[in-house]
Fold this sequence. Notes:
This is Multi-sensor signal transduction histidine kinase. 41% of the residues lie in helices and 22% in strands. It contains 16 helices and 19 strands.
Amino acid sequence: MNTGPDDPSPRSDSEASERSGPTGDTATRVLFVDDEPGAADLAATHVERLLDGVEPVTRLSPDEALDVVRGGSIDCVVSDFDMPGHNGLEFLDSVRGVDPDVPFVLFTGKGSEEIASEAISAGVTDYLQKGAGRDRYEMLANSVANALGRRRAERDLREVNDQITGIHRFATGLADVEDVPTVFDRVIDVAEEILEFDRCVVARRRGDRLVPVVRSESVSTDEIRTFDLDEGVVGYTAREQRTVVVDNLSVDPADPDELEGPVDSADSGRRGPDHDRVGGPEPLDTAEVADPVSDDVRSAISVPIGPYGVFQAVSNGYAAFDAGDVEFAELIASHAANAIDRIRTETELRSERDRLAALYDNLPLPMASTVIDGDGAKRLTDTNDAFAETFGYDAAESTYDEVADAVIPPETEQFDHETLIREDEPIRLEVRRRTTDGLRNFILHAIPVVQPEESVVYSIYADIDEQKRVQQTLRKLHATTREMFGGENREDVAAVAARAAIDTLEFPNSGVRLYDPSANRLRPTAISREATEAFGER
């Protein structure tokens, strides 16, 4: 059907009536008990005339009346006090043994303060004296109406409490769910168990489509299909992120005029703060609004599950979903959306941790992570193998202060973690650090990840010691070249060259021989002591 991901399905009308308590359309059975012939019938006739929806049942003895109570279909008992075999209070005790909650009105012609006191102590709902005059039956009818009202209120309250408890259990259970499909499964389960919706569907949003993923057992595959976001109630619900309650599926909820205009009833066509209610008891001939697959679908409730999907339930009765249904269905959908938010966040965090772990494991450069709390305290939380091999320390066995004291030379200027976090920008520094091979030069990349309570700084070291040495050598050689250009003769130049080979290039066995044209030979001009010892005066 167009009201939802494809054909959600609700409970029947009778179920809806039960859940909202007895109504004027549902007969309320009141049992009248009096041993005096005609007295129970007379009281029953008056009460039936004065109260709508009352179905009277009369009995002449407590034993006969108790059998009726055992049948389990009595909503209130009106009993005389003075009866043979059992008085009214003894009968009350027997009734309470069968149904502890049924209202019990003691209506007696033999009244006294003592009986009234005993009746109240015994737990009667009300105590009335028959007295004389027609108003006694009006008083009795009022007493019965009040007793039935309290019973309905207590029953509704118990039902609401049970529903709240069940939804709380549902929400608590979602904390352990680790995947989205299970969340959707549980939405259907709780809707069937707690809200007593027996024809439900959850459609998951995939791009611009809504795909049915879970359904009640009573919903067949023929009743559901995939919808676009611009189709029907399910599309409207997902697109606008608003609950839609359809009282009559011949009204188009996607038509703003019909959403806002009342339709044959004060409650129809209402656009509330959190949901839209459309349709009235009389079908409107609007063009193929819902297109239900099942001919018996008359009303529906459609609730967004955040941006992730839509929950729907349908009924074969008109206006089958009341305000309580809306509130609890939205509460279930909200818990489901929150659970999916959590699952997605945890999945992203796990993926990020996995990527970070892979980075730590595979990065050939030394890397460490340091957590800085709100007070500026630092905690070394992780190091990779390259860090341990380079510096000889790791996070598993060393604290931040221990590593910093051992690795950072005292004369080296340190970067300020708090400033780094406050500015929330990576920095690149050239630093010297103590390694297992002695002091070496590094390019330090410090990357802050700012979080509300604790921030993290990732430090990655690129060893530039060899690069630094080459740069220094080139600078020295460049200075040597300038010095050679300033030499006054060949011997001065030869001396500078030999000294550069020994001091700059670290070639101790070095020397310069100059060509002597007159002798046609190379003569030693600037030879190191090591070279002389190795090769002699040649």
